[in-house]
């Protein structure tokens, strides 16, 4: 029995299909930035289908809308760059309400498929209206967390461009953020197969 | 008098065309770029090239990304070299350069590796020329960590979008980028780029009556 389980594990490793396309969650959204140290940054965004690249886990863009939000990211140091920590990043799947910046609640309804901790984020403004932010995310929860192997759940780069141009900023927000979250290397997609199918591959 | 009324109406439409919050029409794109000699550093005379795809377009553009792709080809941007602007941030201005956007039902965009290669830029410049513009400016800001942001503006000079969406607009091009430490970048490319292409002057207009206009001044 122990041998069979070992063989099954080996077989699953063998059948793990390396992903070749670039993988990312590409988002475009709006952000509220704190005015003082200790204040919190929040972002509401929509995730788009990045074809011909792929999302790190399969998403059904034909039938669902995917939103990505940042919540309660705390401003620790107000300099250049600003340094943030302690926030949460969540990706929601929803097919009942259309995301609308006039109603921020429409970004955080539905099923939380991935929940992550933002370990740190630096926000730099190069001009009055142009900047960027870079941080790191560790995935810790959500209904699809198990789609990502434990070894692949940590240390995903979060990068975004920042525009404070009036024409880009929705009422009630301070900035437009256009960015992505992605693993540094393509994560391996596992294809579950029956033992019979595995044996069939070897004969 | 009859002639002057239409003229006044046109003037009023112009006067009352006001930019609103979040009203710029946008195409969201991402892709990969390379520069002769690599990036960084960006030495004077190096040439920047980018190929990318759109993953969102405002309805005004009339493109269904489920059935066709919008692909981007930015080329011939010549670096003026790096300038240290403090805090470890480098600024790079580029001169010249062109941006072309193609609309293509083949949906065959493929970056491949080691560009230029048999699929890049060729699969990004097939289909119908949707937009062609010449850069007025492009400025890149590079953080010490290898990421950064950029912005520039273009004059539209050709493509079907010029006729169908906006003929006299200024177009802006901005976003962020990162090197190999923060992204999955195909071999031979230097940067992942994620940004928006926007119509800067496509602003909503507010219709109003002559009486309402006079009331504003009384």
Task: Set out the fold topology.
The complex is a heterodimer of chains A (203) and B (218).
Chain A: H1 2-15, E1 25-32, E2 40-48, E3 65-77, E4 82-85, E5 87-94, E6 111-125, E7 130-141, E8 156-163, E9 175-181, H2 195-202
Antiparallel strand pairs in A: 1-2, 1-9, 2-3, 3-4, 3-5, 4-6, 5-6, 6-7, 7-8, 8-9
Chain B: H1 4-15, E1 25-35, E2 47-57, E3 69-84, E4 90-95, E5 98-104, E6 128-142, E7 147-158, H2 160-164, E8 170-178, E9 191-199, H3 210-217
Antiparallel strand pairs in B: 1-2, 1-9, 2-3, 3-4, 3-5, 4-6, 5-6, 6-7, 7-8, 8-9
Overview of the molecule:
With 203 residues, chain A is mainly beta. Chain A has two helices and nine strands, in the order H-E-E-E-E-E-E-E-E-E-H. In chain A, strands 1, 2, 3, 4, 5, 6, 7, 8 and 9 form a nine-stranded antiparallel sheet that branches. The longest helix of chain A is centred in the N-terminal third of the chain and has 14 residues. About 7% of the residues of chain A have low confidence. By secondary structure, chain B is mainly β. Chain B has one domain. Chain B is built from three helices and nine strands; from the N terminus they run αβββββββαββα. In chain B, strands 1, 2, 3, 4, 5, 6, 7, 8 and 9 form a nine-stranded antiparallel sheet that branches. In chain B, a hairpin with a 4-residue loop joins strand 6 and strand 7. Chain B is globular, with a radius of gyration of 20 Å. At the A-B interface, strand 1, strand 7, strand 8 and strand 9 of A face strand 1, strand 2, strand 7, strand 8 and strand 9 of B.
